[in-house]
Amino acid sequence: MTQVCEGKVYLVGAGPGDPGLMTLKGQGCLSRADVIVYDYLANRTFLQYAKDRAELIYVGKRAGSHTMSQAEISSLIVDRARKGKVVVRLKGGDPFVFGRGGEEALELARTGIDFEVVPGISSAIAVPAYAGIPLTHRDYSSSVAFITGHEDPEKEKSQIEWDKIATGVGTLVFVMGVRNLKQIAEILMSYGRSPDTPVAIIRMGTFAEQRTLEGPLRDIAQLALENGLTPPAIIVVGDVVRLRKRLKWFEKRPLFGRRIVVTRAREQASEFLEDLTRLGAECIEFPTIEVIPPASWDPLDRAIDRLENYQWVVFTSVNGVKYFLKRLQDTGRDIRDLKGLKIGAIGPKTAEVWHRLGIKPDLVPDEYRAEAIVECFRKLGAEGMRFLLPRAAQAREVLPEGLREMGAAVDVVQVYRTTTPDYDTDRIKNLLDQGAIDMVTFTSSSTVTNFVDMFEGDQQRLKGWMDSVVVACIGPITAKTAEEKGFSVSLVPPKYTIKALTESVVNYYGS
Predict the structure, then answer these.
(1) DSSP states of 54-81 as a string?
(2) Distance (Å, whole) CA 511 – CA 314
(3) pLDDT of 241-281, one tens digit each?
(4) What is the mean pLDDT of residues 407-416?
(5) What is the DSSP letter of 4?
(6) Rounded CA gap, 437 and 325, in Å?
(7) Low-confidence winner among 62-76, 186-200, 209-223, 363-377 (lowest mean pLDDT)
(8) Is the dihedral of CA 280, 469, 507, 478 positive or negative?
(9) In Å, how far are 206, 421, 432, 436, 438 from 282, measured between CA atoms?
């Protein structure tokens, strides 16, 4: 009897490309994996679920370019599993639908390695749906067939029963068939499929660059050639294609087709990413700042020990509130120790943290920047008052200097600092070089400065790349920093919030 080794393999379907279409179980497998073996069709965004020390191995296959043969891939998976590793074989779509997962599973079974299959949403189903084409509809088609458009060239004869499917199935979905489209169309017509049958070719389905071409069966191959349609693409043949004019939804979203880089710190970017993605953009996470604790807590601890000496505590960021409250708790105190203190917040997001704790800040300016807080205290009066400003290690001096000029005593303490994360810039460089990025968004001066620093050695090329990219900044201070770095800023919202920035992005492309 074959001995089962300690390692385990998960054959995971990543779905068609849209990160939101990956299953929760698939994400869980990625987070536990010691080794992730992934292919070309699996969106690299999924790799963010991997644990820090996971081994990532690319074995992608594209038409005319294979990094490894199928036998080598299977051997690699077996080798890592025999070493006791938890291996995820991440495949685009579903592992068992034209994904060669069956071959890999058979090899694992043959070698006695424990494995599980985690199904994914097949591109054969998802891509037509994103193009507004239902594969079945009671008025148009009651049957559907999924067919490879690229059979194993070593087969002696085709396993596709063309004479039966040509007229015996309502909707035909061909995967990997663009290069053979002329032959496919001719065979279908030779077996009785009407030359007038509507056909849709959907390239890069579920991605920002999704593109759909429609035409009758008789002309579709020529149309594809004239329009330069290349793989990867899904081909749908059948009357259901007629419904696309009324049902297409993905391509109608206001940011459809836009590829937007988000440079905000990862722990703060989720809402912004979700909103842009929901509106149709393909977002690329490129965090240029990482928020970490200060080098020493001593200054903050001393300020906490004498909280009763202050009249105001003013916060200029969500991070300032977050790290201040955490340290308050770590030192054995809680928000009750803030009794008698007035709280100022630079904007609604910073104020919202306090609202969730049942505390209404005493001051939130109409304009969300330090100058506006200074103006508020010019009206309220600050002479003789003592202020505590928990903030970043590096920040503008507008607020403390403005308060001191009014006769206030101000203690500035570091509660967090920002650093440049260790992030691979190659993907962003390649996309910029290809002109494949539409917009880069900046939400603070630090994101701008660090963005430039991360292109060390390529600053001159970066300037040229960014000339053809829309630069969007959350506010005038950030915009000024971007302009000082040589960028042309196209977009600054009237209010300096993420929500306003998102709305301005939509309005910019809408106009």
Answers:
(1) -EEEE--EETTEESS-HHHHHHHHHHHH
(2) 39
(3) 999 999 999 999 999 999 999 998 776 778 898 899 999 99
(4) 94
(5) P
(6) 39
(7) 62-76
(8) positive
(9) 10, 22, 15, 11, 10
Token duo for residue 146 = 């999924």
Cβ neighbours around 451 below 10 Å, total: 25
Domain 125-252: CATH superfamily is: Tetrapyrrole methylase, C-terminal domain (3.30.950.10)
Dihedrals φ, ψ of 362, to 5°?
Answer: -80, -20
- Segment 123-156, tens digit of pLDDT: 999 999 999 999 999 999 999 999 998 876 556 6
pLDDT computed for residue 130 by the predictor: 97
Q: Are 428 and 261 in contact (CB under 8 A)?
A: yes
CATH class of the 292-419 domain in this structure: alpha beta
Beta-carbon contacts of residue 402 (< 8 Å; ≥ 6 apart) = 370, 371, 373, 374, 377
Confidence of residue 191 (pLDDT cuts 50, 70, 90): very high
Smallest Cα–Cα separation from 243: which of 145, 142, 165, 131? Answer: 131
**Other CB atoms within 10 Å distance of the CB of residue 335:** 13
**What's phi and psi for 143, nearest 5 deg?**
-145, 150
Which CATH number is 259-289+421-510 given? 3.40.50.10090
**How far is residue 44 CA from its own chain's centroid?**
9
Whole-angstrom CA distances from 121 to 17, 55, 425 are 10, 25, 30
Is the pLDDT reported for residue 4 higher than 50? no
Domain 8-121 has CATH 3.90.25.10: no
Interhelix angle 370-380/398-405, rounded to 10 degrees, is 20
41: pLDDT confidence band, cut at 50, 70 and 90? low
Task: For the chain, state the CA radius of gyration.
Answer: 28
Q: Mind listing the pLDDT tens digit for each residue in 64-99? A: 555 788 899 999 999 999 999 999 999 999 999 998
pTM given for the model = 0.77
E strand or H helix at 313, and its extent?
strand 312-315
Contact 15, 34 (CB under 8 A): no
User: What is the DSSP secondary-structure string of 109-168?
Assistant: HHTT-EEEEE----HHHHHHHHTT--S-BTTTBS-EEEEESS--TT-SS----HHHHHHH
Give the span between the Cα atoms of 31 and 49, in whole angstroms. Answer: 5
So which residues are the catalytic ones?
Answer: 39, 61, 176
